[in-house]
Write a structure and sequence with these properties.
Blueprint lengths: L10 E4 L7 H7 L4 E6 L3 H4 L2 H11 L3 E5 L8 H13 L4 E6 L1 H14 L20 E5 L11 E6 L4 E6 L7 E4 L9 H19 L7 H23 L4 H15 L12 H13 L3 H16 L4 H12 L7 H18 L16 H10 L7 E2 L3 E2 L1 H9 L3
Parallel strand pairs: 1-8, 2-3, 2-4, 4-5, 5-8
Antiparallel strand pairs: 6-7, 9-10
Helix pairs in contact: 1-3, 4-5, 6-7, 6-8, 6-10, 7-8, 7-11, 9-10, 9-13, 10-12, 10-14, 11-12, 13-14
The structure holds 5,6-dihydroxy-NADP and zinc ion.
């Protein structure tokens, strides 16, 4: 196991009705003038936004609002949010929604106290200062409610890039599984896929002697394989929703990723799919992960075989190569069984897109021509992986 530091100061409040504590919690974490950020309407329609605003009012907190965050959130709204924060002396940003809303809120929070262009952080500058952010999560997926990360798409060039820093870990996150019951099966499945991908990106490691985190990841994946289909089949299954919601947080606050190298090639390859086709991030990952693993497993057949045996129950008597391939197939079948796509054709993609996808993934916005993860990938390797998605 490698040396690590782990700092995860988010205050989690989990369970039915807890969003009504929003005002109390903002106050507890020092907010008095709040920017409430939300998405395209689900939080308005469900009445959640109204309950949150009432709770803030009840606690004597002044609030301003910024709606309209789109999935695969864009830089334009971030600039708008930064302007509001500066003009209104906002001291706290409250995200009501999913990963896109939370990531927009984090970008606004960092940009509002930074003299330069907030995009500097998405070009690699670490975020060391930001307004405090709180979240009220409405979809279990990205794990942004407990992570130090934010992913934004820059409109000029449609570059989708991430920024990080402990300063943008949420001060608090309210997790009420009931709020996710309005998600349609497709969105639910996208979330489950993303959660599983966050676990697998950590599982595919070049570090040795990492039994504790291996076993944590395997346990969470097994829970997703059991609980995921229940929530897809019955959106009102509170207990399945609750298990998925906590797994989504655990998958990405890095408690399962400490002390080991991590992969993230699939996320980097997927980000170009959601940037080009505007598909859901989880759907893009369902297409990417099996294609990537079918290319990369030879790098460490024993590790992929371990994943296949422990997570997918592949028989012990198979040799490592057979087990690894069977595991990758089981993963693909699981994604298909919950309604996820398996080819880029399902997003309207064709062979003609491959050169562009690979070029942007490898060179876009300052990259040096390679992707570095479990395996090092050249532009030709990345093209081959995209080809396996046709
Ligand atoms: O905008 P509204 O109307 O709210 O609709 C949203 C949106 O259309 C809808 N939705 C959310 N909660 C709902 C609901 N519909 C009905 N009932 C509810 N309770 O779901 C759609 C997707 O929302 P979005 O926030 O985009 O989903 P998700 O949480 O999957 O976030 C995806 C974004 O997170 C990034 C992705 O790249 C993508 O841009 N990621 C962020 C990470 C991080 N910050 O740590 C890590 C991830 O790997 C990921 O890259
Ligand atoms: Zn993800």
């Amino acid at each position: 196991m490698e040396n690590f530091t782990f700092y995860s100061p988010t205050y989690f409040v989990f369970g039915k009705g807890e969003e009504n504590k929003a005002g109390e919690l903002v106050k507890k974490f020092g907010g008095s003038r709040v920017l409430v950020v939300y998405g395209g309407g689900s939080a308005v329609k469900s009445g959640l936004l109204g309950r949150v605003t009432d709770s803030l009012k009840g606690a004597g907190i002044e609030s301003f609002s910024l709606g309209g965050v789109k999935p695969n959130p864009r830089s334009g709204l971030v600039y708008e949010g930064i302007d509001i924060c500066r003009k209104e002396n906002v001291d706290f940003v409250l995200a009501v929604g999913g990963g896109s809303v939370i990531d927009t809120s984090k970008a606004i929070a960092a940009g509002a106290v930074y003299d330069g262009d907030f995009w500097d952080f998405y070009m690699g500058k670490r975020i060391t200062e930001a307004l405090p952010v709180g979240t009220i999560l409405t979809i279990s997926a990205a794990g942004s409610e407990g992570s130090p990360d934010s992913v934004i798409t820059k409109e000029e060039g449609m570059f989708k890039r991430g920024a990080s820093g402990d300063a943008i870990r949420p001060a608090f996150s309210i997790l009420n599984p009931e709020l996710t019951q309005s998600l349609p099966p497709y969105q639910t499945a996208c979330g489950i896929t993303d959660i599983m991908a966050h676990l697998m990106e950590r599982y595919m490691t070049n570090s040795s002697d990492v039994q504790t985190t291996d076993r944590m990841i395997e346990g969470l994946l097994l829970a997703m394989i059991e609980e995921g289909p229940k929530a897809v089949a019955n959106p009102d299954d509170y207990e399945a929703r609750a298990n998925i919601m906590w797994a989504g947080m655990m998958a990405h606050n890095n408690s399962c990723g400490v002390g080991r190298s991590q992969d993230w090639n699939s996320h980097n390859i997927e980000h170009e799919l959601s940037a080009l086709y505007d598909c859901a991030h989880g759907a893009g990952l369902a297409v990417t992960f099996p294609a990537y693993l079918s290319f990369a497993y030879k790098h460490d057949v024993a590790r992929v075989a371990q994943f296949a045996r422990r997570v997918w129950g592949c028989p012990e008597e198979l040799d490592d190569e057979e087990a690894a391939l069977m595991g990758i197939e089981s993963l693909r079948e699981f994604f298909t069984s919950i309604g996820m796509p398996s080819t880029i054709g399902e997003f309207g993609g064709t062979e003609a897109d491959i050169d562009k996808l690979a070029n942007v993934a490898c060179y876009g916005d300052g990259r040096d021509g390679k992707l570095y993860g479990f395996v090092e990938l050249s532009e030709d390797d990345v093209k081959e992986i995209y080809r396996r998605m046709l």
